[in-house]
């Protein structure tokens, strides 16, 4: 199966959305405030009061199991015009039902700068060190060679994420090379709106708009948590 993800958001208007398509005729989900929507094969979000399309400039990261790409999402939601930065991605051969939980985090700071990270925790895992992590990070339109991504999250009393931190280590030069080791890229985020929940099949979904800080820039993002029963 192939998992397709689309997330987008804007802090000024507090507009945000997220959608998963699981393929193989399986029910995914779409969260856009109180509205529901479906992600089509041509990367449109459609539903009652929702008509959104994806526009991309090709800022893309190729992964071993898929890709991530920075995009613009535009159209209408409940008669309101929407135009937000966002991200779309694909993970091949990843079935959420095989994992206890998946955290899908994305952030964007400019049309050519952003981060996307997916952390899938196997069932019966004893700690987060057993998670499968894939990450894409973009700086001025180029994909950064991240080799060691790290995610930390602080949760509120209701179990929803309130703060998060990313530490992204690049491949370092060999000891015999004269290059200076590159420090990690770091990003910090905090919740910027209420939590939204949904359920589809065996999956329980929570999504939240986040404000992110990265290399002196502020941006929007979405923190998704999907748990499988």
Topology readout:
Blueprint: E1 2-10, E2 15-21, E3 29-32, E4 35-36, E5 38-39, E6 44-47, E7 50-63, E8 66-77, E9 80-92, E10 99-110, E11 113-122, E12 132-139, E13 142-143, E14 146-155, E15 161-170, E16 185-191, E17 196-200, E18 203-214, E19 217-228
Antiparallel strand pairs: 1-2, 1-9, 2-3, 3-4, 5-6, 6-7, 7-8, 8-9, 10-11, 10-19, 11-12, 12-13, 14-15, 15-16, 16-18, 17-18, 18-19
What can you see in these coordinates?
The protein has strands at 2-10, 15-21, 29-32, 35-36, 38-39, 44-47, 50-63, 66-77, 80-92, 99-110, 113-122, 132-139, 142-143, 146-155, 161-170, 185-191, 196-200, 203-214, 217-228. 0% of the residues lie in helices and 68% in strands. The model has no long low-confidence stretch (mean pLDDT 91). The protein is globular and about 60 Å long. It is built from no helices and 19 strands. It starts with a strand and ends with a strand. With 229 residues, it is mainly β. Strands 10, 11, 12, 13, 14, 15, 16, 17, 18 and 19 form a ten-stranded antiparallel beta sheet that branches. Strands 4-3-2-1-9-8-7-6-5 form a nine-stranded antiparallel beta sheet, with no helix packed on it.
């Amino acid at each position: 199966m192939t998992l397709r993800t689309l997330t987008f958001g804007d802090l000024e208007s507090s507009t945000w959305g997220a959608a998963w398509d699981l393929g193989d005729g399986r029910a995914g989900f779409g969260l856009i405030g109180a509205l529901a929507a479906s992600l089509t094969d041509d990367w449109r979000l459609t539903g009652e009061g929702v008509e959104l399309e994806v526009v991309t400039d090709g800022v893309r990261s190729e992964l071993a199991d898929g890709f991530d790409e920075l995009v613009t999402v535009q159209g209408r939601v409940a008669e309101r015009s929407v135009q937000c930065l966002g991200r779309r991605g694909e993970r091949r051969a990843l079935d959420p039902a095989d994992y206890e939980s998946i955290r899908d985090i994305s952030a964007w700071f400019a049309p050519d700068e952003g981060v996307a990270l997916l952390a899938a925790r196997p069932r019966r895992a004893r700690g987060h060190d057993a998670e499968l992590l894939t990450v894409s990070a973009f700086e001025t339109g180029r994909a950064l060679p991240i080799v060691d991504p790290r995610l930390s999250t602080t949760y509120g009393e209701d179990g929803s994420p309130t703060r998060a931190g990313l530490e992204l280590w690049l491949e370092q030069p060999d000891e015999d090379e004269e290059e200076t080791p590159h420090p990690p890229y770091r990003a910090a985020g905090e919740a910027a709106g209420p939590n939204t929940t949904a359920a589809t099949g065996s999956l329980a979904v929570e999504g939240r708009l986040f404000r992110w800080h990265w290399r002196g820039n502020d941006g929007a993002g979405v923190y998704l948590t999907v748990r499988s029963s």
